[in-house]
Every structure is written in C-alpha cells, then in structure tokens.
Design brief:
Elements lengths: L4 E3 L6 E3 L3 E2 L8 H13 L4 E3 L7 H9 L7 E6 L4 H15 L6 E4 L4 H8 L4 H10 L6 E4 L3 H9 L6 E5 L6 H4 L1 H8 L2 E5 L10 H9 L6 E2 L6 H12 L6 H14 L19 H6 L4 H5 L3 H15 L6 H5 L6 H18 L4
Parallel strand pairs: 3-4, 4-5, 5-6, 6-7, 7-8, 8-9, 9-10
Antiparallel strand pairs: 1-2
Helix pairs in contact: 1-2, 1-10, 2-3, 3-5, 6-8, 9-10, 14-16
This protein binds iron/sulfur cluster (2 copies).
C-alpha cells in the first residue's frame, strides 16, 4: 500500500507520514547507503532529513537523489551559532546534496542557552531568515531535545515553520503540550527517535504508535538496510491500529526501560569526570542489542569503566537531565551489567 501524506504545517509541503532519517547511512558503505536511499525513493518516501553534522550522510544522500531532486523534499540542518558559520555550512550542504536549494533548513539541537546566542546580533537566526528570503531555503525549522523549550518558542510565535523533536511510546512528553501547540500554531512536526534510538524491540509497533498521533506530521526513522526500508514502508502503508499483543509489548518495554530510558540528548554533559553518560546508560539495551559486540564497542566499554568508577558524585548531571534520571544510581548498575555482558560475550 502507498504511503499516506500529511501536510507539514504552514510549509504546506505534503510529506509522506514516514520520511527518511539520515543518521544510519553514515555507518554503512557508500554503495549500500545509496541503495537504501534509492529504495526509499522507489517505495514512495518523499521526505529526506540529514544534517551537516552527520559526516558522510549529506554527500551520500546527494548522490542517491540527484536525478530525482525535484520529486523529493530535502531537509538538512546546521549547528552553526553565527551568521558566518551558518552561511559556510549552507554552502557545504548544498554542494554535498548536489542541489541549489533546500526544502527545509533547520537550526540543529537548539537549547535555551544556545537560543540566546542564535538570536544575538551576528547570530545564525537572522542569517537563516535571509537564506529563506533569498529562496535558497524554501522553509525554515528548528530541532531540539527539549519539548519545553520548543513549546515556549512555538507559543511565542517564533519564525520557524517546523520543529523536530524526539517522541516515542516511552518519551511521551511532546504529546502533552508541544504537538498540540504546534497544531494550533500550524507549525509542522517532524518526529525523530520513534524507536527510542534503537532501544525498542518492535519497530512496527513503535512506528504505528507515533503515527497514530494525528499531531505528528512525519516521522523519520533511521534505516541502514534495504530490508528495513521495505518493512517500515509496509507498516506505515497499512493499518495503524495497534493490536493487543503490540500494546502488551509497549507495556513490557515501558516496564523494562521506563524509569531509566536515556534519550541520548547529552544535556547532562559536560561531566567533570569525563564520563560518557549516555553511552553507559544506553549501550546494553540499544547499541549492543542492535550491533552485537564489535571490536570498537569492546574497547570503549573497557576504557569507560574506570571513568565511571571515578564519578565525583557531584550531581551536576542530574540537575541537567530533562528526564530526571537518577544518573548516579544508574551509572554503576549499567556499567556492571555491561561488563558482565562483555565477560560472557552475551547480547540482551
Ligand atoms: S555525578 Fe558523576 S557522572 Fe554526574 S556530572 Fe558528577 S562526576 Fe559526572
Ligand atoms: S542521562 Fe538524561 S540528559 Fe543525559 S543523555 Fe540521557 S536523557 Fe539526556
């Protein structure tokens, strides 16, 4: 069945309910990355999201979509804080993506703090507005891990036509205020992390859950295999009804992950002891589950263990975590579990 389309807020773009998130194509060979993006196009996906910060992703997407540029919507984003850096990033993104315009250009991972810098004279916000006036970006948006921040700026009437936020059946906060506010203000909503950044067991259930929310315009799961594209398109093209067994699997995941689900936003950083907190909290149930024990993961696990043992117990991380996770309690528990898995060479 064909993918259905939804209107992306005031941009007026009719985007497929499922778009393509460009993070995972960095992890595979260029030839495989191009095959994945081409498969997305072949199966009708019309919305492609990437970022200047995703290493090779823009370039690979550009190669895959060059011949069909006028038939797809391409969105990218920049971490730039100043006007000059944004203009430089834009030039690189256009070159990588083999195009002379973007359908959507977004300020990437904005926080309450960085928002002040972005709005200051010489900041990236004014430049973004100019880029839109010049027609190089047809529309502009903002991405953030903070639903509270996004709700505030949308309600205040910011110039952004879209927002992007993480939302899934464990991280439910956006469904309470943010998405209804966006609907009211006619701001388009792009949903990242529908699979909890890889922590969930059932991708189909996770996709259906997000798309059942009519305030979510488009979700952009990351896919690195052609088979994943085929499976996800089949799910989104079919009925979005959640069956009893799926509801039960959501409850099981909530019970297993709910009070310790780390969204990998890294707001808890910097840690004075140099502990990569999200790595420790997430590796067992996401990276390890998905990729198994790679050489790199084994090395990193061994390197991180002494850092966790040297935690200063300062609590600074917990004051910054938007999910109020008990980080100091979780760190040693998660580290021990990971080391045990490493010793047994087991995978959850
Ligand atoms: S409590 Fe530990 S993990 Fe948290 S910021 Fe302090 S040193 Fe880092
Ligand atoms: S511990 Fe909290 S702040 Fe840190 S990455 Fe996870 S969810 Fe974000």
């Amino acid at each position: 069945m064909a993918l259905k389309r939804r209107r992306l807020g005031k941009t007026g773009l009719m985007v497929t309910e499922m778009g393509f998130g460009g993070i995972p194509i960095q992890r595979v060979s260029e030839a495989d990355a191009i095959k994945v993006v081409e498969k997305c196009y072949e199966l009708g996906i019309n919305y492609y999201d990437t970022a200047r910060g995703y290493t090779t992703s823009e370039e690979r997407m550009g190669k895959a979509l060059e011949g069909v540029r006028d038939k797809v919507y391409i969105a990218t984003k920049s971490h730039a804080k100043t006007a000059k850096d944004l203009r430089d990033n834009l030039a690189t993104s256009l070159k990588n993506l083999r195009t002379d315009y973007l359908d959507l250009y977004q300020l990437h991972n904005v926080t309450e703090d960085s928002w002040k810098t972005l709005q200051a004279p010489g900041g990236a916000l004014d430049e973004l507005l100019k880029i839109k006036e010049e027609g190089i970006a047809r529309h502009i948006g903002v991405t953030s891990h903070s639903p509270t921040f996004l709700t505030r700026i949308v309600a205040e009437g910011s110039p952004f036509e879209t927002i992007m936020v993480g939302y899934n059946y464990i991280a439910l906060e956006p469904s309470r205020d943010l998405l209804p506010t966006c609907k009211k203000m006619d701001v388009g909503t792009v949903i990242m992390k529908p699979f909890g950044g890889g922590a969930f067991t059932n991708a189909a259930t996770a996709l259906k859950f997000v798309l059942a929310d009519k305030n979510a315009d488009c979700t952009i799961p990351g896919m690195q295999l052609v088979s994943e594209v085929e499976e996800n398109v089949a799910v989104c093209g079919g009925s979005l009804k959640l069956f009893e067994a799926e509801l039960a699997s959501i409850e099981a995941d909530r019970a297993a992950l709910g009070k310790e689900f780390c969204a990998a936003c890294d707001y808890c950083q910097p840690c004075p002891a140099g502990i990569p907190i999200s790595f420790v909290l997430r590796t067992e149930m996401s990276t390890l589950r998905r990729m198994g024990w790679t050489e790199g993961l084994m090395k990193q696990t061994k390197e991180v263990a002494p850092k966790v043992a040297a935690c200063l117990d300062c609590g600074a991380c917990e004051t910054r975590c938007p999910y109020q996770l008990p980080i100091r309690q979780l760190l040693p528990e998660k580290m021990d579990a990971l080391l045990k898995r490493l010793e047994e060479h087991s995978i959850p």
